[in-house]
Amino acid sequence: MSELNNIVLKILEKGKGILAADESTGTMTQRLDDVKVPSSPENRLSFRETLFSASSMTDCIGGVILYDETIKQETSKKIKIPELISSMGSAPGIKVDTGAKVLAGSPDEKITEGLDGLRERLKEYYKLGAKFTKWRGVYTITKNFPSKLSIQSNAHALARYSALVQECRMVPIVEPEVLMEGEHSAKECYEKTSEVIKKCFEELILHKVDLKGIILKPNMILAGNKSDNKITNEEVAKLTIKCLKNSVPSEVTGIAFLSGGQSEIEATENLNLINKYNDTDFIMSYSYGRALQQSALKFWSKNIEDIEGTQKVFNHRAKMNTLAAQSKWFKDLEV
């Protein structure tokens, strides 16, 4: 078993998932503005430190994706953030792309940038304690999109990124996100997501990436948020499994879903049903941002000194998702 595969298994063992705390300074400022807390480096660190020292970090969270600012910070007790995360039994990770920019040749679509200088940055992050990394490609569904250009360009970037990350002895999270925004049906989401994932694996194989040493972070199969044709949670689960069975090579060990704009409960319920119907060998868990943090952030914003209360809210959400990753969740467990 490879060193990289061991990292994957450790992150996703026993229903554990990944906390996506890699919001850029701009995104985090927006989140804090929404709950009327000033976005200073101290406040951003304070909220994250509160989560990273919660008991569920040991019981439920196998990995934390950090942002460049955060991985270099120290806690109020002068402990480096990656050291705090490691001491809780979780793996520190880092977002390494530099964001989605306008795709030349198709200006209504996006290409994720950040390959320039990536090898050097990866070496630095590895020294800081990172065990895994993240890169997100984004695709929109409309009548004409995603285009072949967008699907090919983003797959190529994800593969080049993954090869460089594995060269640096870290696990790449491969995140091709087909966005929920739009009027598309679940059927269209299924077709486009399948196409996107298949192309990603074509490129990963071409770039000689060890598929046992990656974590795939896909969207679930959902109707667009403006669609009139919503489907049931059971249909979401069954279509998502079908898509992955037909698109993902069997060598892949771990799949950690993004929440992609779903509510906290919806993201948990869909994950639970996916695991209930999962007839594959893939470990299917979660890599959630807002769907893990939103309630905790709202609670914390009322009194940023109430660390224990905030942790209690976060611990509950993390526990619910870890139960869902083992198909042991049910609605009555929600407060």
Biggest beta sheet attributes: 8 strands, parallel, barrel
Low-confidence stretches: none
Bin the strand percentage.
15-25%
Head-to-tail CA distance between termini: 41 Å
Number-wise, the strands total: 10
Please bin the fraction of helical residues: 40-55%
Q: Give the number of helices.
A: 13
Helix/strand/pairing category: alpha/beta
CATH domain topology = TIM Barrel
| Gyration radius from CA atoms, angstroms | 19 Å
Task: Give a quick set of tags describing it.
8-stranded parallel β-barrel, two-stranded antiparallel ribbon, TIM Barrel, alpha/beta
Please specify the SSE layout and strand pairing:
Blueprint: H1 3-11, E1 17-20, H2 25-34, H3 41-52, H4 56-59, E2 61-66, H5 68-71, H6 81-87, E3 91-95, E4 100-103, E5 106-112, H7 118-127, E6 132-139, H8 148-167, E7 171-178, H9 186-206, E8 215-216, H10 233-247, E9 254-257, H11 264-277, E10 283-288, H12 290-302, H13 307-324
Helix pairs in contact: 8-9, 9-10, 10-11, 11-12, 11-13, 12-13
